[in-house]
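User: I'm putting together a teaching handout on how multi-component assemblies are represented. Below are the sequence lines for each component of a complex, exactly as they appear in our records. Could you produce the 3D structure of the whole assembly as structure tokens, so the students can see both representations side by side? Please keep the chain order the same as the input.
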Amino acid sequence: MTNFHLQSVPLEKAYRLITHGPTVLVSAQDQQDTDVMAAAWACALEFSPAKVTVVLDKSTKTRNIIENSGYFALQIPTLKQLNMVYYLGTQSLYDVPEKMAQSGVELFHFPDADIPVVQGCAAWILCELIPEPHNQQMHDLFIGKVIAAYSDDRVFRDGHWHYHEVDEEWKSIHHVAGGHFYTIGNAVSIDAPES
Amino acid sequence: MTNFHLQSVPLEKAYRLITHGPTVLVSAQDQQDTDVMAAAWACALEFSPAKVTVVLDKSTKTRNIIENSGYFALQIPTLKQLNMVYYLGTQSLYDVPEKMAQSGVELFHFPDADIPVVQGCAAWILCELIPEPHNQQMHDLFIGKVIAAYSDDRVFRDGHWHYHEVDEEWKSIHHVAGGHFYTIGNAVSIDAPES
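Assistant: Of course. Below is the structure of the complete assembly, with chains in the same order as your input.
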């Protein structure tokens, strides 16, 4: 880990990393395989203990790996990574064994964590799967308990995103359909005390 | 309904209304009460039959009304509605009986639907609750089957958002924390066929 901009995010503020609704990358590894996929349907579920949901289709190898390993990471990619995100979200490791190499994704690990994570993202949320067979089978819905969270302090620090102060290439991307996305836009605030 | 810009959205494209992760308004009515709240944790769950999830805290009257009535609407507010959204999201009908009047919200109904919806939004997703006691009690997680969807064709038409062609006041808002939000930003596309 040679990026000196990485900083830990308190678990009780981890929800702020995805409450604005970005498309995320989901990464995981088991004893055989490592995979990363894109997911537009990820969401915070609880403040404390911090939890998240993510919808993982049965056609994805990442889902199978998470079922085997019990761990996954959600990470917030940036506009600079758009082509890689699209590739990771449209190619399956089941069909393309060389997917990881073809995508150009570079992985690393945070200290004391076996979950592979993606270089160059804006934030990372490490999760332990809370097994819920009904939700997983019936709804493709996976629930994770957040066990650690990190951000790149150039774009998220002091508990807040600073998207409005950085170059466009740092912006989060928000999927619509097919190859169509929006970046996050301008900061707007209510003149009221912070809750 | 005097807004001639309202158009029906095919159910199989309803997911596109929230896949970009906006903060939504949740509306519902039972035989006693009508309430509208804001929710940042809403997400698409399935393409077809279209389904959505939304996290509804036990402290909200809206949740109680949905449990009674079995129906709710998610709607995508615009930047123009920011102050109203914040008020609806921070005041509870349990504490403020005059919340609806104070908020300035104006409600209407789509044809053949008993669910009250909010004037001036960019899109509306009418849902029938799929009762899941475990998810509701354990996770505050509510699942809705989409029974109808509509948009204002000035900002969503032909299956796509046109945020990049409209005034800033039409933009979706994306909550971070407290009174802090981002608007949606610029359209970016991959040069690939649409899936």
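A couple of points students might notice: Residues 61-69 of chain A form the longest helix (9 residues). Chain A has a mean pLDDT of 96.
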